[in-house]
Amino acid sequence: MSKTLSDEDVKERIYRIRGKNVMFDKDLAELYGVPTKSLNLAVKRNLDRFPIDFMFRLTKEESLRFQIETSKNVGRGGRRYLPHVFTEQGVAMLSSILNSKRAVQVNIAIMRAFVSLKKMVVTYGELKRKIAVLEKKYDSNFQIVFTAIKKLMEPPPDKPKRRIGF
Questions:
Q1: Residue 99 in domain
Q2: Beta-carbon neighbour count of residue 77 at 10 Å?
Q3: Is 74 exposed, middle or buried (0-12, 13-18, 19+ CB in 10 A)?
Q4: Which of 20, 98, 128, 136 has its CA 20 to 30 A from that of 104?
Q5: What number of CA atoms fall less than 13 Å from residue 20's CA on the CB side?
Q6: CATH code at 77?
Q7: Could you tell me if residue 44 is inside a domain?
Q8: At what angle do helices 25-32 and 88-97 cross, to 10 degrees?
Q9: Whole domain around residue 40: which residue ranges?
């Protein structure tokens, strides 16, 4: 692999769908340096390795929400089929069916990004717990401060990341 893949390169391709952190087949194929069709064919040949908690296909509504184009006419561009998304376990399973040096390096970078996201969630939980303890400790004069802190800590709603270009 000519360019080292950073955590940020991978994190920007991780989405939250159905309460899970997932990556699109198209993004994974791009990282692995293979056509999306080839990646999906390899998965199709090994479907028994990809239960629903490892990989699932988006619905039409989800696909539109994330601005993934589908097309009935191949000549018009876009995708003919709704995209697959892979959970962390699904990405790990991909390494067993895509056997190249690049695939190994990409999988290592992706696993590091998922671990980094998990650490952020744990840190967030610890911070939330500490604020709750402080809130009990102080009187109602500080309630406004605690309310503001809680509002700042609320996760943003699931919004698709905006893509620039075509």
A1: yes
A2: 9
A3: exposed
A4: 20
A5: 17
A6: 3.10.260
A7: yes
A8: 40
A9: 7-117
User: Is 105:112 a contact under the CB 8 Å cutoff?
Assistant: no
How do residues 106-126 score in pLDDT, each as one tens digit? Answer: 777 777 777 777 777 667 677
User: Is residue 90 a contact partner of residue 54, using CB atoms and an 8 Å limit?
Assistant: yes
Measured CA to CA in angstroms, residue 147 lies from 14, 131, 143 at distances of 30, 10, 6
Q: Is residue 123 part of a domain?
A: no
The gap between the terminal CA atoms of the chain, to the nearest Å, is 26
pLDDT digits (tens, 9 = 90+) for 11-21: 888 888 888 88
Pairing of strands 55-57, 20-24: unpaired
DSSP the chain: --SPPPHHHHHTTEEEETTEEEEEHHHHHHHHTS-HHHHHHHHHHTGGG--TTTEEEPPHHHHHHTT--B-S-GGG-SBSSPPEEE-HHHHHHHHHH--SHHHHHHHHHHHHHHHHHHHHHHHHHHHHHHHHHHHHHS-GGGHHHHHHHHHHHSPPP--PPPPP--
Strand order in the sheet with 55-57: 14-17, 20-24, 84-86, 55-57
